[in-house]
Structure to design on (190 residues):
């Protein structure tokens, strides 16, 4: 797999994801901790890459607090909890970037306009990559592998069929169904 396209994904079991989402919506006592355990690392990474390490922890906490207080607005049928939290993160990061750019900062005794590590466009691109990784993680393993081979390793359908020892029609169907499922999930998330 080409390193420029490599996405590290930890694929939780579907029942565990459903349990976290259901308990989060219900407001169960350990739900926030479980949601943080499941989604804290990608959300923190998005914040750190966008805003820097010094504010990433605070913004990550704000995101989870906002998500917790707005949990009744989350609809699991429209997308994953991770995707919903990334949407909140995107908005919080953009708000923070705007605030930083409005607030003069002292640098070596001089006032200058603060610059963020990532622009709002780059934040959107990073959030989109996280949403895409989340959509990929929710695919069945075989469909996910077929899509990785086709798009990340740039193999033809015939090469995939030979490598996986599957009929060509099966490879094409798995890729088509996987892409359709990802499209539906990404449309629900946006």
């Amino acid at each position: 797999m080409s390193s420029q396209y490599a996405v590290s994904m930890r694929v939780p079991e579907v029942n565990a994801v459903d349990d976290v989402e259901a308990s989060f919506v219900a407001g169960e006592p350990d739900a926030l901790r479980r949601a943080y355990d499941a989604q804290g690392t990608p959300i923190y990474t998005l914040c750190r890459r966008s805003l820097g390490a010094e504010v990433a922890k605070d913004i990550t906490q704000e995101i989870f607090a906002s998500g917790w207080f707005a949990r009744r607005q989350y609809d699991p049928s429209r997308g994953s909890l991770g995707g919903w939290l990334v949407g909140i993160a995107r908005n919080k990061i953009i708000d923070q970037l705007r605030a930083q750019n409005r607030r003069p900062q002292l640098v070596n005794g001089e006032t200058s306009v603060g610059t963020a590590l990532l622009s709002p466009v780059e934040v959107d691109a990073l959030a989109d990559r996280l949403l895409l990784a989340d959509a990929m993680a929710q695919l069945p393993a075989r469909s996910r592998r077929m899509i990785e081979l086709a798009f990340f390793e740039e193999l033809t359908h015939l090469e995939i069929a030979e490598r996986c020892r599957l009929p060509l029609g099966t490879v094409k169907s798995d890729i088509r169904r996987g892409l359709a499922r990802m499209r539906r999930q990404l449309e629900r998330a946006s």
Observations:
- The first helix runs from residue 14 to 26.
